[in-house]
Amino acid sequence: KAGVTQTPRYLIKTRGQQVTLSCSPISGHRSVSWYQQTPGQGLQFLFEYFSETQRNKGNFPGRFSGRQFSNSRSEMNVSTLELGDSALYLCASSPGQGVSGELFFGEGSRLTVL
Amino acid sequence: QKEVEQDPGPLSVPEGAIVSLNCTYSNSAFQYFMWYRQYSRKGPELLMYTYSSGNKEDGRFTAQVDKSSKYISLFIRDSQPSDSATYLCASLKTSYDKVIFGPGTSLSVIP
Among A43, A92, A99, whose Cβ lies nearest the Cβ of B92? Predict the structure, then answer.
């Protein structure tokens, strides 16, 4: 069974631009969570989607948004990029109705903002 | 105060040593406790999963949860160089809630 796939793996943007990251979960998984990972803050929860609905949201500004499609694939968007948005963005999928702590992570999309 | 805290290390041990990794948490509503392992340039992978207090053993790994002191531990016996990674503890209130991660402890096992 294929794992969680994230694209692109690496990208460089400049301040003020926007970026869209994509995540394909493991087949059959309906929950998709997004995390931001930085050396200073560690893994910070962004949001979680289940059956195309945002079920949980972290404490990030409105510039961070996401969505989930009917095939469970998910995208997240960051608008008006700031230098502090440079990070590894990780997507994770979960089997079952709830997360239950069992997250299967992709390898991440590393964003650098110049 | 972060909801889940752990010493970031780095921790360096010789091969074969017993490793003890620890976390504390502040929210008494947490019921699910996990340990994830993250190799460099990879996403985290679930290592151990426990519900409520108690011990769980899986091969060389043992997870302990003490809810009375809000303390989570991971023990690695007969540590190997392949165990060199960052270990993240995580907690969850309900199965429909968000998973909260600690900052991670970097471990190096020296041959």
Answer: A99
Using one digit for the tens of pLDDT, what is the confidence trace for A55-89? 999 999 999 999 999 999 999 999 999 999 999 99
User: Which chain A residues contact residue B42 at CB under 8 A?
Assistant: 107
- Taking CB atoms and an 8 Å limit, are A56 and B98 in contact across chains? yes
Q: Side chain identity at A39, as an amino acid letter?
A: P
Give whole-number Cα distances, B68 to A67, B29, B53, B61, B86, in Å. 39, 12, 9, 22, 26
Among B30, B95, B106, the residue to mutate for chain A (most A Cβ within 10 A) = B95
Contacts of A63 (CB under 8 A, 6+ apart): A78, A79, A80
Residue identified by tokens 């979680």 is A48
Q: What's A24's DSSP letter?
A: E
